[in-house]
From TrEMBL:
Native source organism of the sequence: Rhodopirellula baltica (strain DSM 10527 / NCIMB 13988 / SH1)
Taxonomic lineage: Bacteria, Pseudomonadati, Planctomycetota, Planctomycetia, Pirellulales
SUPFAM superfamilies registered for this protein in UniProt: HD-domain/PDEase-like (SSF109604)
Name of the protein described by the UniProt record: HD-GYP domain-containing protein
CDD domains per record: HDc
Domain spans labelled HD-GYP: 165-367
Domain of life according to the entry: Bacteria
Length: 439
């Protein structure tokens, strides 16, 4: 049964479509949100039995959709008795809709509740182009910020706040594709690209920890801005994957978190929590970090999250004296190092749930010699992700649990492996550079 109503603030008619009436195979042409503006189904979502079950599990009985799209999504059309759409006690505020005004996402509501379930969907090429556009925009905005810092005319970071919201909106619409494509390691990585990866991965972990929308956006902003002070230092310090520093250079380099925070203190639209996170990103949970040697819960939660993300990105980025670790080995190495208390245990668990043992965007090899890319996290556990084979075929490890999979080096990314013995025997302080002999 479909009932028609008119939006008093918009000339567009909307109708209520019962979830039970959704047509399997239909495709959403426009985003569908709930009364609070939280995204339920994104543009291009294909209606499947799993999508319908997911809506039911969230207690959603009806969807408010554009009248022109109702016949496409419903298997009953507009026949049947109509019922009036119940009026909300508060009008739906467009500012609550992800992607419209992300800075006003609802406080106290875990962003995780808004994630669209796309586990059974393939990679969307349109979404890929959108994400690439966001990264390109970030490069442009960072150049503007660099010039503003140089000329001491830094007044606002609104553009980066909007950018953080854009990536968060993409993550809500498709968590796995956003993380897999944005955070994936590159052969070369500028300071801007690395900051984008850090911010996006940090937002994903914050979401996994059940933080609300505004908090997740602040993590993204902190990740984007955390190394901003490097723009006013020796250019050699701002090259990710650079060679080892001398003792004097290390001393100078470790000043950059304070320099970054200080350069932003006069900017009115930066929350205090973001400044704290920027200053504390390189503090370690066991007190062995810098610049102040803080430990445990004295370190802001945003910084504890971003510290783990920073470690992961450093391991998956090659340097002048070592190859990049394949993502699987980087994650395994972090798990081994966690026994020394370097990281917040809750953040480590969230990283594992976010990336899985075979991280999103990484490459694996099957027992038959075929290679595949990891495109979706496991529904349960950590070891059975969804793969996309080299011929484009989808392969769900959950349905093939006995298939042997092992991580493999991507020849285009200068990657290396780290043995289990090496992971166990190396004692590493993430505040320092890592040296090891690759296999």
């Amino acid at each position: 049964m479909i009932s028609t109503t008119s939006n008093a603030n918009d000339s567009t008619n909307t109708v209520l479509v019962p979830v039970d009436d959704l047509q399997v195979g239909a495709i959403c042409r426009t985003p569908i949100e709930d009364e609070m503006g939280r995204l339920l189904l994104g543009t291009g979502t294909r209606i499947t039995n799993e999508v319908i079950d997911g809506l039911r599990e969230r207690g959603i009985e009806e969807l408010t959709v554009n009248a022109e799209e109702a016949d496409v999504l419903s298997n009953r059309g507009k026949s049947g008795a109509a019922k009036a759409k119940p009026k909300s006690t508060r009008e739906k505020d467009a500012s609550h809709a992800p992607g419209r005004d992300p800075t006003k996402w609802i406080k106290g509501v875990p962003l995780k509740d808004a994630l669209v379930n796309r586990h059974h969907e393939p990679i969307d090429l349109t979404r890929r182009r959108t994400l690439q556009g966001h990264v390109k925009m970030a490069r442009s905005k960072f150049e503007e910020i660099r010039l503003a810092l140089t000329e001491r005319k830094m007044q606002t970071v609104e553009a980066l706040s909007d950018l953080s919201g854009a990536f968060a909106s993409a993550m809500v619409d498709d968590h796995d594709q956003t993380i897999g494509e944005v955070v994936a390691c590159n052969t070369e990585m500028s300071l801007t690209d690395r900051s984008v990866k850090l911010g996006v991965l940090g937002m994903a972990i914050g979401t996994e920890l059940d933080l609300d929308g505004p908090s997740v956006l602040e993590i993204g902003m902190a990740g984007l801005l955390h190394d901003i002070g490097l723009y006013s230092m020796d250019p050699a310090y701002s090259v990710p994957g650079r060679g080892a520093f001398s003792e004097e250079e290390t001393w100078e380099y470790r000043k950059h978190p304070v320099i970054s925070a200080n350069s932003l203190r006069e900017v009115s639209d930066i929350p205090h929590s973001v400044l704290l996170a920027i200053e504390q990103v390189h503090e370690q949970y066991n007190g062995e970090g810098y610049p102040f040697g803080l430990e445990g819960k004295r370190i802001h939660i945003y910084a504890r999250i971003l510290n783990v993300c920073d470690t992961y990105l450093r391991l998956t980025l090659g340097t002048g004296f070592r190859k990049a670790l394949v993502p699987h080995d980087a994650l395994g190495f972090i798990l081994h190092q966690a026994r020394y208390g370097s990281f917040d245990p809750q953040v480590i668990h969230a990283l594992l749930r976010t990336k899985s043992l075979f991280p999103l965007g990484s490459r694996v090899e099957l027992a038959n010699g075929k290679w595949a890319d990891v495109i979706r996290r496991p529904v349960e556990g950590y070891a059975c992700p969804v793969l996309q084979l080299s011929d484009g075929e989808r392969f769900d490890m959950q349905e093939n649990p006995n298939e042997v999979v092992q991580p493999t080096c991507d020849p285009q990314r200068n990657q290396g492996r780290l043995s289990i013995d090496a992971m166990k025997n190396i004692r590493w302080n993430p505040a320092d550079e890592l040296f090891f002999d690759e296999e």
